[in-house]
Design brief:
about 240 residues
Length: about 240
């Protein structure tokens, strides 16, 4: 079972992610959308969406640093284990809480607003379940580990090493077998969520309009009403559409 969960399942999840994304890009371009419901309700969306997106941005960044940056690198940089864990727990807890609050508001919005509820797809229920579950399990693992309820487990010497071994196709699944239950559940929900991305509205993350951040400003020029009044009226066939 450990071999299947921690040595096979991650590759199955990534294969479904890649294959599904390629398929949707080729055959379902018109369905590649967030299915926005902003026209139905905007007040809760303006609160929940930024909380969720910015919270998840820092959550993903924290996971990248925690899983991919070896302990020897932070030691060489002069960052002690205590300082690292203090920084990771404080920033991770804030980011995770923001993401959880944001997704909670968005789920409440979908349940509360009738028009948004009618626009909800079947796959959205599964997507929200695993998304919210992964966030809450991550927060639970963080709290349990920071309060000493996991017997001093150091994920940088267990989960991080296992995760990096996946890239060399030699998964050391025994490292995950010894991880606390909260971490195991969080990882399982995370990889299941990866597999669901191409088949849900989450696929829009691969086409985020980042170029908007760097495009030049669009300048709108107004016209003086007095100048418009002084201009002679054009005949129908002379008007510019």
């Amino acid at each position: 079972m450990d071999l299947l969960l921690w040595g096979v399942l991650p590759y199955v999840s990534i294969a479904l992610l890649v294959a599904g994304t390629v398929w949707r890009a080729r055959f379902d371009q018109f369905g590649w959308t967030t299915h926005s419901t902003q026209l139905h309700e905007s007040r809760l969306l303006r609160i929940g969406s930024p909380l969720f997106h910015f919270g998840m941005l820092f959550v993903v960044l924290g996971h990248v640093i925690g899983l991919l940056v070896p302990k020897s690198w932070t030691d060489a940089a002069g960052l002690s284990d205590h300082a690292y864990h203090l920084l990771a727990v404080s920033t991770g807890a804030v980011a995770g809480a923001a993401a959880a609050a944001g997704i909670g508001i968005l789920v409440y919005r979908r349940c509360r607003v009738a028009a948004v509820r009618r626009a909800t797809l079947r796959g959205d229920h599964l997507m929200y379940t695993f998304l919210l579950g992964a966030i809450l399990l991550g927060l639970t693992a963080t709290v349990l580990n920071s309060t000493g309820m996991t017997d001093g487990y150091n994920y940088r010497e267990g989960i991080s090493l296992w995760f990096r071994s996946l890239f060399t196709f030699t998964p050391d699944y025994h490292l995950m077998a010894g991880a606390p239950l909260a971490f195991k559940a969080h990882v399982l929900f995370g990889f299941t969520l990866f597999a669901l991305i191409p088949y849900s509205r989450l696929v829009h993350m691969f086409s985020a309009p980042l170029k908007y951040l760097f495009r030049p400003y669009v300048v709108y020029r107004g016209r003086d009403p007095r100048q418009l009044a002084e201009r002679p009226a054009r005949r129908g066939w002379e008007r510019v559409s």
